[in-house]
Amino acid sequence: MPAPTSTIFGPVDNAFFYVESPETPMNIGALVYLSGHLDFEAFQRYVDARLHLAPRYRHRALQAPFGLGMPTWAPDPDFYIGNHVMRLELDAPGSDEQLRELVGRLLSTTLDRSKPLWEIYVIEGHGNASVIFFKVHHCMVDGISAIELFTLMVEMSPEYSIDEERKPLYDPPPLPSQPQQIFDAIMSDLPYKWSMLNKIGNHIANLASLLTDRNKRLKALVGIAHLLNDSSLPVKKLPINGQNTGRQVMIGAEFSLAEVRAIRQAANASINEVMLTILASALQAYTRKRSSEYYPFLRILIPVNVRAEDEKGTFGNRISMLPIDVPFDIADPLARLRAVASVSSVMKESELAETVDMLLTIPSLFPNPTQPLVWGIAPALFGAVAHTWCTNVAGPQIPLYLMGHELKHIYGYFPLNPGMGLACVVMSYNQKITMTLVIDTGIVNEVEELYRHLCAAFVELKQAAKVADMPPIAVKQVGTGAETAPTESVPPIKAAEYVPSPVVAMAEAPAQVSAVTRLPQAALPSRNGTAQVEGYKLFSDEWAKAFAQAINASMSYRKASTSWTAGSLAFVMRPSPAHGFAAPAAVWMDLHKGECRSARAMSEREAMQLAAFVIEGEYDSWMETLSGKSSPFKMLANGKLKLKKGALLRLTPHTASAQELLKCAQRVPIVS
After folding, report:
1. Domain 1-163+174-512 classified CATH 3.40.50.300?
2. Where are the domains of the chain?
3. Alpha-carbon dihedral sign for residues 525, 530, 531, 536
4. Which of 32, 273, 282, 408 is most buried, by the most CB atoms less than 10 A from its CB?
């Protein structure tokens, strides 16, 4: 028998794969409004030309007969772009109600498991705007990498190219036969379960170290006490909980990010905590109209990415969750926000996310044929301990373009857990922030009323925080086009000032952080601008270490970069013999939460392997960037610098951090 031919699912991927039912499709994605008319045929070619950069999107799910092995990914020999990028047209007149109904049908259907688990629909006939509906199965991607394909399609300027000639030949082998699948399952099962056992062992070791650390132990116990103090299990059901029907709709409200930031500053809270408070206030108003019973709080599960730095590419999805309790018995909106911030801080410091991750891993040790049964029961446990889910995605605060068309509005969506009639996605983009609700209308049937409660809750919180009206960004309902009257105009917030909330940063944070590496003081330029040494050759090891020391000495960089947990960064310079670079040169920096833990020069190949993000450019482009004459994002937009590795959408929220990083580089003297 040949060697195994496919890639095994991770433990959380299994959960999403087995939990799915017609009543609760396990899909994530977005509804996007574009300016102007999008040429469908050109768009289909455009996606096809770039798809090789995201190989998973041409793989389909397989499982050995009789459930003898875990599901696996294998290249689909029958892949055809027309099965995934499709066109739908609304009948005349193409009203908002027709669009909302169509989106609801797309949202309510599961993906065909006989092909790769994603689809893109271009919806035509809705006025002068183009509408795109993205749909990806959650077992394929986590909340961060879900935007991988989306990232490959968007640009920072209207300029684009299809580049069909660069598309490599796709020539996958045939799918493995059933005997081969059984063989693969047998050969993969023991190593897989051993890796899961090691993973659980690491969790136990981490928890043991937590119990021996007085401060960490206290924080964990306080977090547990919060949960036990609020109520016994199971939680008291709200009118948003019940038996799922699979009839889903999607609504959303869009607010000014400047106003949300002003609200958070009034209560010393995070952006995500502001949005959680708005959600809870709307759901409390909805609940009071339907029940006279006393409900003390709303418990919201917050997804958290717990992938460690050394786990990239392993274990599939690495998502855990934290429960956040929002009190219903606090009348003042600002006082409620402060309570949410307090509870959120306690839960983030409690290490409960790692404990939950361990619990989600344990079922992977059970015999493979029992997996559908185990994961068929597990969702009921989430439904017993919480009322709903809410996830937060920080998008770029500058306009993006798809084939020259500006992205005007983006509404993300998230699957419903069985027993929950509502889930929420908060997403920031281009100085706006949206709150999108996925709703099972068999449980929550007054959708318009819930939308009005969301808008009213925002206004009440804004008034309580004494926040004045800011940019005229209208509140808009998905699929209706209804907008409030514009507010009085004031200078808009600068993109560089936006800092993702602590919860957003936590969603990308690795589970473990190594000790900070301090670099020699001798490499640091003096404070008065006179270098302690004559200078360093650009992109040399000495320059890299001096750069790192300048980073660690900069309070401005640290303040702007506390949310940076996306991984290490590498700069690559193309050969430039005229400037002393006969071969490509690279420097690598291990950046984490405002500090540079290590830095060194290395080969281009090593940089591509080690760094999470790699930016490449010519000598003149680097000199223009490092001298401060042009911003890195502008250089990326005009093609003078290229992002060779990493997702652009994960970089763009950190514009302030990038500017401070360049200021640090300018403090390091260079010699030719």
Report:
1. no
2. 1-163+174-512, 515-671
3. positive
4. 273
Please, are residues 597 and 568 in contact by the beta-carbon 8 Å criterion? no
Which of these, 433, 529, 415, lies nearest to 476 by C-alpha position?
433
- Which sign does the torsion angle of CA 529, 535, 539, 541 carry? negative
Task: Give me 94's structure tokens.
Answer: 């193409």
Q: How far apart are CA 613 and CA 524, in angstroms?
A: 25
The DSSP result for 521-578, as a single string, is GGGSPPTTS--SSS-EETTSHHHHHHHHHHHHT-HHHHHHTTT--S--EEEEE--BGG
The arithmetic mean of pLDDT across residues 70-97, rounded, is 90
d(CA 72, CA 60): 8
Q: Please give the C-alpha separations between residue 336 and each of 219, 341, 385, 433, 501, in angstroms, as whole numbers.
A: 22, 9, 22, 21, 18
Closest CA to 372 of 614, 69, 26, 102: 69
- State the pairing for strand pair 248-256/154-155: unpaired
Element (H, E) at 324: strand 319-327
Question: Cβ(511)–Cβ(354) under 8 Å?
Answer: yes
- As a whole number, the mean pLDDT across the chain is 78
Interatomic CA distance for residues 156 and 398, integer angstroms: 8
The DSSP call for residue 488 is P
Pairing of strands 59-62, 130-137: unpaired
Q: Does residue 415 carry a pLDDT above 80?
A: yes
CA quadruple 448, 449, 454, 459: dihedral positive or negative?
Answer: positive
Which residues contact residue 644 at a Cβ distance below 8 angstroms, ignoring those fewer than 6 apart?
A: 572, 608, 614, 615, 616
Distance in angstroms (rounded) separating the CA atoms of residues 598 and 600? 7
Who contacts 258 (Cβ-Cβ below 8 Å, separation ≥6)? 431, 470, 471, 492, 493
Mean pLDDT of 556-571: 86
Whether 500 shows a pLDDT value over 50: the answer reads no
Sheet with 388-394, strands from edge to edge, namely 248-256, 432-440, 422-429, 388-394, 297-305, 319-327
Name residue 177's amino acid: S
Q: How far apart are CA 563 and CA 8, in angstroms?
A: 32
Question: Tokens 């580089």 sit at which residue?
Answer: 665
Q: Give me 394's structure tokens.
A: 């920080």
CB 531 within 8 Å of CB 669: yes
Its sign, for the CA torsion 500, 504, 506, 509, is negative
Q: CB of 534 within 8 A of CB of 528?
A: no
Position 54 pLDDT exceeds 80? yes
> Could you say which architecture CATH assigns to the domain 515-671?
2-Layer Sandwich (3.30)
Distance CA 45, CA 589 (A): 37
Question: How confident is the model at residue 497, as a pLDDT?
Answer: 26
**SS3 at position 54:** coil
Buried-exposed string 489-509: b where 16+ CB fall within 10 A, e elsewhere = eeeebebbebbbbbbbbbbbb
The token pair at 513 is 């952080």
The H-or-E segment that residue 59 falls in is strand 59-62
The total number of residues shown for the chain amounts to 672
